[in-house]
Each structure stands twice: as C-alpha cells, then as structure tokens.
Design a protein that fits this description.
The protein is mainly alpha-helical. It is built from seven helices and no strands. Helix 2 crosses helix 4 (73-93) and helix 5 packs across helix 7. It is globular, with a radius of gyration of 17 Å.
Amino acid sequence: MRATEWVAVVAVFSSLIVGSDFALTPLVNVKLMDTLVFVSAFVFGLRAGAAVAVISETIWSVVSPWGAAGAIMPFLVAGELLFALAGYAASRAWGGPNLRGLSVENAFLGALLAICAFAWDFETNIATGLLAGARSFPVLMSYVVAGVPFMIPHELSDFALGSILAPAAILYIMRTAGRRGSPGTLGTPNTLPRAESGVG
C-alpha cells in the first residue's frame, strides 16, 4: 500500500467514525467507533488502526455535542488504542480464512470488543475519579460503580456490533480489495500484497 492509499484509508475510517458518532448521539454509549477502529487494524494493520483510533477519538473529544473532553482526553485516546491492538491481534490469531458473514464463531470478535469496552470504561472512570481529586480506593471505585449504567450499553453494543458488523465489514473490505493480502498486512507501507487470503 502506497503512502497516499494509507492516508486515504485512515481518513475514510476517521470520517466514518466521527460522522456516525454524530448520527448516533441520541443513543448514549452506542457508537461505531470501537468497531471501525478494530476493523481498520484487523484489515490494514496496527499502524493504520492506531492512527484511526487517535485521530477519531481526538476529534470526537473536541467536537462532541456532549462537550469537549478536556483533561481526560489522553485517557480516552489511550483507551481507544486497545481496540486497535485487539483488531491486529485478532487478525494474527483468527485470520480472514476463519471468518464467515454469519457464524456463531464470530462472537469471538464480539467478545474481544466487549472486553476492550470494559477496560476502556474502567480506565476512563478511574481517570475521572483521579482528575476529580479522589485518592482512596473506595472513592475511586465509587466512580466505577457510578458509571455502570453507561458501561452496560457500551459493552453490549460493542459485543453485538463486533459479532455482526465487524466480520461483515472485514469480509467486504477484503473482497473489494480483490482478496489481496493477509489481514493485518494490507496497511503495511511498502509491502506488496500477499497471495490469496482464502476468505470465504
């Protein structure tokens, strides 16, 4: 993939994320961001996925209709990188040949996203407590407990989107790209596409 193609991939994914975030604003903590970051890293590699995570989360943290994130922004961005890492790791362990459009086994991807969503929620709730001045363990945990009503829709929606949308998007992108390359390598700069990926 040439540098211009890589930039285009990152720009398209980031634009889709921010646009869909605005469209889904009424659904609190239900977003396509996590799924699309995961997909970008799965198909195009960790570098692309990390770039999409950083750019989209930074933009959303500034322009969100709920208000700018402020001091917690670095924690939000760091948490979003978990989805890029998970997507890349899944591409190495799972791979395109094992994906199907509709399969119970796709719940593996959904579970990965749900775990990342839990880690993201836990990390950002702890960070919120620390920024608010909490210094004891019980007080910090109170921030986590207070966030449970927001964590549940986040994790459930990530599981559903990861199980249904993520594999469908991965398969579509790989087929549209002419079934060239292996998952996680299409975004590696100056790397020629590999042979047939074997995606169903």
